[in-house]
Here is the input.
Amino acid sequence: MRNPSHAPAVRYPHGQSARVGWLLATVSSCGLACLLAWLVLGTARADIPIKAVTGLGLWLACCLIAWRWWARMPVGQLAWDGGQWLLESGMSGQAQAVQGSPQVHLDLQWGLLLSLKVLQGPGCWLWLERRSDPLQWLSLRRAVYSPARSQA
Here is the structure.
């Protein structure tokens, strides 16, 4: 039996965010600029080749991990029906029940970073933005922060 909730039923789109992509590119560029400044200004000439290869390799690995995370963000809809959360895939249209409730990790008022644990398969991270569906944004926030939690 599920706990009743006063939060309205809501469906909200999620997927790759251009804003998150630009943020990752900006952080990556700043990291490269700092690495190059450190190599030019703060390293002895004899150490530059070793530190450059190591530093650039680490920077490149971090960039690839960040890009892969962004490229693999799931696309679809997050739905609350008043009793349980569902994660609907954009490709197949199939819905997976979510275990418990989405956990909010970052709330910027215009964007939410959530983690979900689905009943079958690995959990996932979602970045939701107000501009994806401004009319449903407040309903989504009420549902995410509702004291009634689903029991999967």
